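Troubleshooting: if your tokenizer reports a length mismatch, compare against these two reference records.
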Amino acid sequence: MNPRVTEFQCIMPLENIPSVLKLGFLSNERSAKLEHCSVAMEDVQEKREQKHVPGGLKLHQYANLYFHARNPMLYKRKTEINNLCVLRVSTEILQL
């Protein structure tokens, strides 16, 4: 891991925090089976639905974390900022 990567970040609605504390970060595929609030953009999700990680699973079978939450996704949701949070995630998550 690049030493400049000190953490990952996750953008989510505040109301999803209890679920994350109970179940952890879930992939798009697994979270679709649960009641939750989504900030995903449908047109982006349709494109991601078709993607596979080289040598791995479908993209929607992985949990979505960012290197930095100040990105286009957060900018697109700037009007919802009072209902969103950015969770900081230790790089140790890669050991799970």
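Reference record two:
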Amino acid sequence: MLFNSFEFALFLPAVFLLYWFVFNRSLRAQNLFVVGVSYLFYGWWNWRFLLLIAFTSLCSYASGLLIDHHRKRRGGETWSRAVSAGNILLNLAILGIFKYYDFFVASFAELFGIADYDNLLLQIILPVGISFYTFQALSYSIDVYRGKLAPTRDIVAFFAFISFFPQLVAGPIERAANLLPQFLRPRTFDTAQAVDGLRQALWGFFKKIVVADNCAILANGIFDNYENLSGGALVIGAVAFSFQIYCDFSGYSDIAIGIARLFGFSLMRNFNYPYFSRDIAEFWRRWHISMTGWFRDYVYFSLGGSRCAPWRHYLNIVIVFLCSGLWHGADWRYLAWGLACGLCAAFGAMTAKARKKLEKFNPLYRQAWLKAVCQVTITDLLFCVTLVFFAAALYNADPFAIYSSMLQGWNGLAGSWHQVQQMLLDCGIDGRLPVVLLFGTFVVLAVEHGGRSVTRWIREQVWPLRWTLYYAAAAAILFFAAFGQSAFIYQQY
């Protein structure tokens, strides 16, 4: 069930009313209801996926109790470590079988020239959002083992924590220390919190339906025809895709956070205006915060972080980004994207001190605003360049052919733009699309420029302007929603 679907438009009000007016008599009843509607929401795609998420939840719940049980016994640390390791391996094995098995078998066969390997492939459907809820379950078990979190004995609350429907499919990847306690304490309806949630959800729908889906039309047209377009047109496609993926994914996060507030829950922030970052390290601290934080805490620090030899520190950074690339999908282009991002981040860390010294001699950096513009522009362009690998994986394209065209096939910005417009017209797409894109991206960047909470900014406006913004956003959403719904990019991970 998609957030931007007619089914969800019926599902959400019904769940909201039942949650607050029927199942509000006891905490356990509310949590049971959350589990039930979350499983309904998830099973809408394929009911068989429910068996997998239930098994993952049960194993992680049991591992927390067993770790705590053995830790209290004399000499039980070894058993606690074994239980924790066993649960980690089990979850990773499930993720590996469903997401990576066919990829590694095919890669191995191609590497060694094995022609007939189709009978070795499982060819099973990838469960929606498996990487998100698997990592959420893993973090619980690891935190219990490390003593950062007491295991819960409330199995209903735990199942609700793993399957909570607003963030189940595409995050944020919540930590048990933040979300699980919210299922263990009584919740009362807070009007201000609910209204703020509606504001944030509205903003998320605007980013997804008005901006991301229109950027997708442009990006789809360009990357589906990349072999016949100039380098300038491909650069335009890369920029369009960068806005598409940001507004699509951050839009989902805004909707998830907003809906969670309707039910009295606070989810972590997943994006912090990354396109205003001044270097690549800051960018990754602001982009998909729940995932980068997960890899930082459970992989980067486990490898030694920065408290080791410089070469090892840079290697740790690259390893973390390689893991991030693999997390996104079973495709060598995702790995290449992770490697490219890791090398950029490692180079940034390696040259941080030297760049600060050189800034004193750069005449462009003598003005604070010009320095900020230059740094933000360079960071965003660097991200767009690496993002070509990511786009190539989604569109099953050759990233090196795209890079080659970008470097050699320029015919001027005006000529490239004319080529893109002609391609849109040939595909039967309204020629006014570029105007919509420019307006939509301008609105997103203008609103997020100050780095303030969007919901707070709207709340602070005088009521005529505030309600004008509501109606304008809602009208734009309904207008573009009439052209059809599209899936969120990250729900496939």
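Descriptive notes for reference record two:
- The mean pLDDT is 85.
- Residues 350 and 369 are 26 Å apart (CA to CA).
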